């Protein structure tokens, strides 16, 4: 039975961030990951200003900027109306040193963090080691993975929405699942000459979409289009490249075809764990909360969880604080998930898919007015860039 002060289950961006800051604080970490490597699957790709701030002193932000695409603007568009509102994040330069988003896929961020962690003798990772069970007692926590057992003072569950760590502690995961699945289509087509920013939200009662640019594996970058599907559509049809191209043509017709390089289909949930701490077990990222991707907030929230828990856990392990400090982590981050993450992402979807023509007209008018009034635009971007939520949560005691 191997021992470590902290075991982190899951090597996604949240788990790797927690490991990075714990190791940086001098706390050894053992990480258990079910996969055999960091995969290039097309998942989260937006990094917001507060996340860049949290990584800045460590040098990680500089590396993100080297790998990512800086997106100063984001657009709200109507499928028929075209551009409705253009938001310039430079308005936030009075508030943050990073008044922009960075489009950088989560696997790139994960590799940046992993490359730094590999340099430390305080970090060990076990690939292809899925956790089967987690049990705790007064003195520590045991994680079982196949025939092996690992012992730690604390365990951080960063193992996704189906978290074994969360389920092993019988922690509820309340919320709901949307009836429609989301389809992500990745294409080489460049939307920028057509007036699109690097980050766009396209409103329509039936065919709304989110369209954004990512670095991809090509010098010119790639574009992703996320849109809803109907429950009766077959997975094999939705993932078929030819049918994906037809789908894009119906959404945004153009001469010539769209080159499709990837498709991905996934169920979408809005859920929050009933607690982020149960004794010596702590939850972060998708293990603690899941949400729809509109607004690009989920990965950022998971990273913020990781920054919070690592600072507090390091203080406890090093004898600088009582473990009641971990209850503050739960209060702060669960409030963040409920009051900001869930509220904002649910609202984002409602705005895009509004079906009532009168209400939709009011929403579009309100978005136009907000974008053209610097005071309102600043307030709106404080929310959508996550700065406001981070400040409110930091004040919770």
Automatic annotation (TrEMBL):
The name this protein carries in UniProt is FAD-binding domain-containing protein
| Location of the FAD-binding domain | 4-343
What is any Pfam family matched here? FAD_binding_3
Tell me the leader sequence span. Answer: none
What biological processes does GO assign it? 3-(3-hydroxy)phenylpropionate catabolic process
Return the InterPro entries for the record: FAD-bd (IPR002938), FAD/NAD-bd_sf (IPR036188), PheA/TfdB_FAD_monoxygenase (IPR050631)
Q: Where are the transmembrane segments?
A: 6-27
Task: Cite the SUPFAM superfamilies for this sequence.
Answer: FAD/NAD(P)-binding domain
User: Would I find Nuclease among this entry's keywords?
Assistant: no
Q: Which organism is it from?
A: Sphingomonas crocodyli
Annotated keywords: Membrane, Oxidoreductase, Transmembrane, Transmembrane helix
Top-level taxon in the UniProt lineage: Bacteria
* Gene Ontology molecular function terms on file: 3-(3-hydroxyphenyl)propionate hydroxylase activity; FAD binding
């Amino acid at each position: 039975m191997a021992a470590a002060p902290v075991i982190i289950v899951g090597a996604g961006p949240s788990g790797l961030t927690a490991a990075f800051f714990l190791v940086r604080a001098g706390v050894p970490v053992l990480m258990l990951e079910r996969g055999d490597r960091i995969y290039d699957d097309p998942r989260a790709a937006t990094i917001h200003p507060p996340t860049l701030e949290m990584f800045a002193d460590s040098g990680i932000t500089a590396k993100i900027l080297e790998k990512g695409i800086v997106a100063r603007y984001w657009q709200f568009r109507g499928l028929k109306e075209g551009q409705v509102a253009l938001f310039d994040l430079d308005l936030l330069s009075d508030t943050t040193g990073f008044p922009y988003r960075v489009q950088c896929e989560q696997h790139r961020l994960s590799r940046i963090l992993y490359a730094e962690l590999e340099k430390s003798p305080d970090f060990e990772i076990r690939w292809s080691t899925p956790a089967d069970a987690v049990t705790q007692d007064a003195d520590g926590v045991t994680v079982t993975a196949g025939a092996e057992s690992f012992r730690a003072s604390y365990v951080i569950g960063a193992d996704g929405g189906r978290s074994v760590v969360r389920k092993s502690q019988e922690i509820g995961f309340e919320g709901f699942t949307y009836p429609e699945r989301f389809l992500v289509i990745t294409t080489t087509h460049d939307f920028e000459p057509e007036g699109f920013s690097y980050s766009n939200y396209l409103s329509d009662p039936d065919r709304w979409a989110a369209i954004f640019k990512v670095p991809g594996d090509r010098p010119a970058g790639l574009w992703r289009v996320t849109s809803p599907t109907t429950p009766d559509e077959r997975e094999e049809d939705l993932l078929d490249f030819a049918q994906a191209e037809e789908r894009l043509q119906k959404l945004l017709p153009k001469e010539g075809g769209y080159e499709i390089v990837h498709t991905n289909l996934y169920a979408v949930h809005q859920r929050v764990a009933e607690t982020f701490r149960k004794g010596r077990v702590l939850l972060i990222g998708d293990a603690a909360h899941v949400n729809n991707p509109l607004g690009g907030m989920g990965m950022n929230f998971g990273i913020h969880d990781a920054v919070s828990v690592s600072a507090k856990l390091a203080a406890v392990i090093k004898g600088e604080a009582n473990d009641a400090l971990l209850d503050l982590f739960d209060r702060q981050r669960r409030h963040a998930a409920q009051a900001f993450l869930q509220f904002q992402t649910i609202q984002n979807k409602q705005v895009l898919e509004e079906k009532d023509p009168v209400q939709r007209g009011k929403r579009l008018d309100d978005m136009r007015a907000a974008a053209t009034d610097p005071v309102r635009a600043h307030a709106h971007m404080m929310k959508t860039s996550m700065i406001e939520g981070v400040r409110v949560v930091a004040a919770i005691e």
